[in-house]
Amino acid sequence: MPLPPLVKQLAEKKLTAYCQGKIPSHLQNEIRLNFKFRGNTVTLLESRPAFDMPDTWVDIPVAQFRYDPDAKLWSLFWADRNSRWHPDMEIDPVKDFDRLLQEVERDPTGIYWG
Hints:
Layout: H1 5-22, E1 32-38, E2 41-49, E3 57-68, E4 73-79, E5 85-87, H2 97-106
Antiparallel strand pairs: 1-2, 2-3, 3-4, 4-5
């Protein structure tokens, strides 16, 4: 099920600002942040040039935000080394998308930024 248009628009606005503010401009040829929507989820990705092919960028999943349209709540997930998603047990589902972005930035357990 796709995200409701206003929910998607708000998440896109917040993630765009987050991604633009996270990486200094002088490093953007080495690392980038972006995101992808799919159904009721949005995935935050770190992109870097491939080791053996510097003209090819590789996406590394950082975090996934899942929206429950019935409860109108966002949940936060982290990816293991096999890119399988697991719920972040440190934070309950919330209405405020910013709260989940703050948790990713804070990263108290090191599962997002290491």
